[in-house]
Amino acid sequence: MSEPGRMDAEKGSTDERTVGLRSCGDCWRCCQDLRIGEKAPGTPCEHLDKDGPLGGGRHCGRYADRPADCRDFECLWRLIDAELLPNTYRPDSLGVIFSARLASELGLPPHGSGDWLVIVALPVYSPAGKPLAICTNATAMEAVRRLRAAGLAVMIDETASGGEAIVERPLRKPTPEFARRLSAGLEAIAGRRQT
């Protein structure tokens, strides 16, 4: 049986961190690159163990009682299938962390009939603690184009590197099937947050 926050290497199955279709595997960028309480982005979390899954990865040393910031964060790469964000677009490979947020949580005005879903693109950080640019990362911008083409609004957050937060409206409405899959994943997240 897997420990919390670890991947079962033998079976390829995962623990409770798998909400949608994919496991974090050896990726731990959220533990380093997100603001968690007083921890600044680009600084590894003090609870990030160095002896993680599959030999050499990292994992959360206090996953069962992790802070609310960690508990509430969901990586979009894990939530949606590889057709939209291929396996090579995992945050540790791509250099960008995508998450789904409601526009109202970001202080953005209502659109159409009310609140709307925004995909936030956040940078990962270099070993020197500097945020990597998103807009000059061709593969990251291809991922943004894929998300917009699927009918999602994307906010590219370059504020950490002195830039702006740019909101790109979707190119078209999401297909009913994609909207259903994303909605099911978000409902699963909401259910987990209430328990």
DSSP strand count? 6
From the helix content, strand content and strand pairing, which structural class follows?
alpha+beta
> What is the mean pLDDT?
75
Note the main sheet.
4 strands, mixed
**Secondary structure: helix percent:** 25-40%
What is the terminal-to-terminal distance? 22 Å
Bin the strand percentage.
5-15%
The helix tally amounts to 6
User: How much is the radius of gyration in Å?
Assistant: 16 Å
Write the layout of secondary structure elements.
Elements: H1 29-33, E1 48-49, E2 59-60, H2 68-72, H3 76-79, H4 91-94, E3 96-102, E4 117-123, H5 138-149, E5 153-157, E6 165-168, H6 176-194
Parallel strand pairs: 4-5
Antiparallel strand pairs: 1-2, 3-4, 5-6
Structural summary, described in words:
This protein is an alpha+beta fold and 195 residues long. It has a domain at 68-194. Helix content is 25%, strand content 14%. The protein has helices at 29-33, 68-72, 76-79, 91-94, 138-149, 176-194; strands at 48-49, 59-60, 96-102, 117-123, 153-157, 165-168. The chain has a four-stranded mixed sheet. Strands 1-2 form a two-stranded antiparallel ribbon. Strand 5 (153-157) and strand 6 (165-168) form a beta hairpin. The chain is globular. The model is unreliable at 1-19 (pLDDT under 50).
Short summary of the structure?
The protein has 195 residues and is of the alpha+beta class.
Please tag this protein with its features.
globular; disordered N terminus; alpha+beta
